[in-house]
Amino acid sequence: MSAPRRRFLRRLAVRLGILLRSVEREVDAATLPAFANHPRNLRIESPRTVVNPSCITIGDQVSLGPGCQLNAIRRYPGAWMSGGPDTEPQQFEPSIVIGDRVSATGYLTIGAALSVTIEDDVLIAGHVFISDNQHGMGGGDVPFKYQPLERIAPVRIGRGTWLGEHVVVLSGVSIGEMCVIGANSVVTGSIPPRCVAVGSPARVVRRWDAATQGWQPAPGGS
Question: Where are the extended beta strands (E) located within 30-175?
């Protein structure tokens, strides 16, 4: 194949790729579910899973990458979980609130039976898990997927915070504004504002010092 022909085919492939990407974005926007509000310039890439969108409020200029699951749990076990033991389902009034200009790389999972709030300008890396509930562990004979949800408590992620890759945020946690949560951390307790926390369970290792305009080691941190 001649060099001019190779250059032509490369240019054609680039143009087709751009066109296909544009079409994908139009389809993503046109197929968004009806949320509790009407956010402007919202982008949630496909594939995606949104359960009970009427319980979900999303701010303007939000961008969520592919593979996200937003699950507002109104009933557990759900109708999709058939074939299990005959248990009385739990009923919930969940709320998921995502503020303005929140961005997530992809594969974000949020589960709320009560309340998960993500404030403005939060940055979320890939494969982050946030839940305000945990599966029950009250019996050794019934499969855990059928046991009642428990330890249900609100979760809040403060303004401007950055959650690193594969972070897990568990029920009852409040993370203050402008925090950094390191990759692979499991947050089981609340984190004060303007702190760096890492580990499993996550612990504060740095605090922002307004006087020095820098991060300083926290007592007991490293």
Answer: 43-44, 48-51, 56-58, 63-64, 68-72, 75-76, 90-91, 95-98, 103-104, 109-112, 115-118, 123-124, 129-131, 134-135, 149-150, 155-157, 162-163, 168-169, 174-175
* Widest distance between CA atoms in the chain: 71
Tokens 């982008």 sit at which residue? 43
- List, for residues 79-111, the tens digit of each pLDDT value: 766 666 777 889 999 999 999 999 999 999 999
Task: Tell me the per-residue pLDDT of 113-126, one tens digit each, with 9 for 90 and over.
Answer: 999 999 999 999 99
Q: Residue 5: count other Cβ atoms within 10 Å of its Cβ.
A: 9
Q: Which superfamily, per CATH, for 35-217?
A: Hexapeptide repeat proteins (2.160.10.10)
DSSP 191: B
C-alpha distances out from residue 107 to 46, 70, 127, 191, 198, Å: 10, 10, 5, 24, 21
Give me 139's structure tokens. Answer: 């019996």
Calpha distance 112→69 (Å, rounded): 11
Taking the C-alpha atoms of residue 102 and residue 154, their distance in angstroms, rounded to an integer, is 19
Parse the chain into domains and list their residue ranges. 1-31, 35-217
Cβ(47)–Cβ(64) below 8 Å: no
